């Protein structure tokens, strides 16, 4: 294999590809990136961690087609330090790959391309397109709620499913058992009848990074076990989480009868301020609701107390409720408008938070004991 | 040619208080003794933090929803937790431990590893030390503890479970491998219901089955967990008892040969620091609640930025992700960076936090 590629192009695609590679691999070839030069003037770079695979296809001058694999992180580090604007020559033969750019030359160990594990996609019968903007919205509004607890592996991703309601819709949900986030968007053509799937957290992360550089639409193909995203010059393929996402719609309250309408920005700033004194053991922010007035307070045996009044619209019976400050801030940080609705029932009941009843996103938060 | 000496055999004790929170409550209120008791909140969305042995006889377990517990045991009494009391008792038992060794690694309020390889009080054997510690705990606190004595942490912890409650189990090096071979795979760390089911499909049900598989086979099916499983199946565990663990923090930092300012270079460097930190964190089975990024600029000004997550960072990707987000928030930079550090802290008893934050009724 022999090809020449612009340093900037190589660096960009390597930076996409190398973040999929796990840091510690017991199987050496998993630390490598597969580089395949094709006669049609393209270079394909592939990396995998066995659950997630990325393929980047870029333009290059290909002198001799062929393929090999070489350490992803080493090649990335080299590419970073090569002179800007240089042309990088990659040539592989007899178990080594030469990297030459300007006056620098590197000789790297390689492993044979035939040993490189490729995720077998199988049939992906469901195919549809989503705009990059909508996919960004879906991810941004839900990913903070994804569970990081490995034991509840079926919560370690975003749940995607379609539903026929007033309109056909696609819903994305994530929860860690304490808070839930759900986004609803119009169902794209081709998504009807798709299986319910859970997209793993790492795939979500890598997809989100790629989406930063892409506009236009993303091709989504999936089966019950795999998903593939095609965007820009990259194709991201991931195994789906083999598990059953809980029936989360049951925990979305529909009859909470106490409504607080409040400016999300001042609410958020107030919570953030009083939570300054919260410690490891006291992350709870108490909200005392009275007519048109909310008093936020935090008590920390180590650090002291904090209190702040925030104005809001509240007409129901007064009562007190507590929330984890971080969870509350995570949700409020998602609200873009001037008002946020907080639907409450009692101090032990799941609370619904949303901008209004037509907003695509809604959030459910379990209160804390105060 | 002199032979390399084998590493000295260690003596590790795992002390585990029996039904800790429940036993404290029964100690302090005689009316609760002999009765099925759950520490926790009994109402609709409550959960059992700890169950007395009488309650366990009915199938009541920690983390069980209160409604389920009441169904299994209609006479179950609920008592709210008193964490300040539990913390005080934990302090008392640690003072006892300190008389026997400075190498104490608490796992939670009611569990700790002690490295007693060096017999500072000259009692003659690790068994004798464990016997004395249990007796003193009983005399000083009125509570019972079980102990496992062996040559590494893994077996010591399994051993303390063997003769619970109020029991002692010693597994010497000669019996270690057989003891582990007979265990069901569920008893191995990191093997929960999901992994156990996968192992069962592969015909792996006991430690012996695990021992009979090659490292390559384990790597293929269990990835990075393979090295641990391979050693554990042979009764091997070289993790030291770390006295400076959980109540503080663990991480890594690196000073660079040249100051870095480009995001790409910084993220790549952070990846390496996170990896070094996680290698150390993994050895503690730690789940810390806070990830802290430390940044030293070229002018030597040093800042830290932290982020916490309720469930704790038990997962490398989440830990690294937190570090990356914290670093990203600092851009654009006005100065180069000469040092990056990433640390996990808040590694303390999780149960108190879990009690106060109930879960959604999923």
Write structural notes for this entry.
The complex is a heterodimer of chains A (370) and B (362). By secondary structure, chain A is α+β, with helices and mostly antiparallel strands. Chain A has helices at residues 7-18, 72-81, 132-142, 201-211, 264-274, 325-332; strands spanning 2-6, 32-38, 42-48, 52-59, 61-64, 66-71, 87-93, 96-101, 104-111, 126-131, 157-164, 168-175, 179-186, 197-200, 217-222, 226-231, 234-239, 258-262, 284-290, 293-300, 304-311, 313-314, 319-324, 340-344, 351-354, 361-365. In chain A, strand 16 and strand 17 form a beta hairpin. Among the domains of chain B are: 20-83, MutS, DNA mismatch repair protein, domain I, CATH 3.40.1170; 177-232, 5' to 3' exonuclease, C-terminal subdomain (DNA polymerase, domain 1, Orthogonal Bundle); 249-349, Dna Ligase, domain 1. Helix content of chain B is 38%, strand content 22%. Chain B is built from 14 helices and twelve strands. Chain B has helices spanning 20-28, 53-56, 66-72, 83-98, 126-141, 153-162, 176-182, 193-201, 207-211, 215-222, 226-232, 263-282, 316-328, 350-356, and strands at 12-17, 37-40, 48-51, 77-79, 104-108, 111-115, 145-150, 168-170, 249-260, 288-297, 302-313, 337-345. In chain B, the strands form three sheets. Chain B has a five-stranded mixed sheet. A four-stranded antiparallel sheet of chain B has the order 9-12-10-11. Chain B has a three-stranded mixed sheet with strand order 3-2-4. In chain B, a hairpin with a 2-residue loop joins strand 5 and strand 6. Chains A and B meet through helix 2 and helix 4 of A and helix 12, strand 11, helix 13 and helix 14 of B.
